[in-house]
Amino acid sequence: MKISFLSAFLGLSGFYTAEAQLSNANNVGPTSALSAKSKLCNVLDYGAKADGQTDIGPAILSAFNNCAKAGGATIYIPPGNYAQATWVTLSGGSHYAFQLDGIITRTGTAGGHMIIFSGATDLEVFSKTSKGGIQGAGVYWHKQGKGVYGPRIFRFVKCTNWSVHDLALADSPAFFIVVE
Ligand SMILES: *[C@@H]1O[C@H](CO)[C@@H](O)[C@H](O)[C@H]1NC(C)=O
């Protein structure tokens, strides 16, 4: 299951022009273009540091709650190496994007999901450079004998009109994307 989903996902990542035109063709995916989400909510302005060790979790949540949730905005994670020690749930929100151009590596050891998008509509999750992604570091999880069901990377709960494209999800301890 895990492996076949990974290869399906990597196949998808080859389309670097997916953006919102998915919706133009088939009425799937986000209903508005990225140009309509131009207010940048840079996580570096909300406490993130590209130092490979500062927990980016609170900065993502703060950028969402204080900047992106109202819409017309993009949570922006610039190129660089980040660590994620605590998990976040982005509740609600519409008409926003999540642009991951850096690499986030899992350092936290809780179960659950690293990032949950819940109840959002018109949501686009992507990497503009196709070089952003999340390193789940599952090999360490399993080496520690912590069991099969480690944390997942993304979970989408009751979201409508959304897409994920052009980013890499590597070595999740359990599933890469859960859609509920
Ligand atoms: C999702 O998109 C469809 C097609 O554009 C639209 O009819 C529908 O109202 C949208 N749903 C929400 C919750 O905005």
UniProtKB/TrEMBL annotation:
Domain Rhamnogalacturonase A/B/Epimerase-like pectate lyase residues, every copy: 41-84
Subcellular location, record wording: Secreted
Main location: secreted
Alphabetical UniProt keywords: Disulfide bond, Secreted, Signal
GO CC annotations on file: extracellular region
InterPro entries (UniProt xref): Pectin_lyas_fold (IPR012334), Pectin_lyase_fold/virulence (IPR011050), RHGA/B-epi-like_pectate_lyase (IPR024535)
SUPFAM superfamilies: Pectin lyase-like
The keyword DNA-binding is annotated on this UniProt entry: no
Keyword DNA damage: no
UniProt signal peptide: 1-20
Protein name: Rhamnogalacturonase A/B/Epimerase-like pectate lyase domain-containing protein
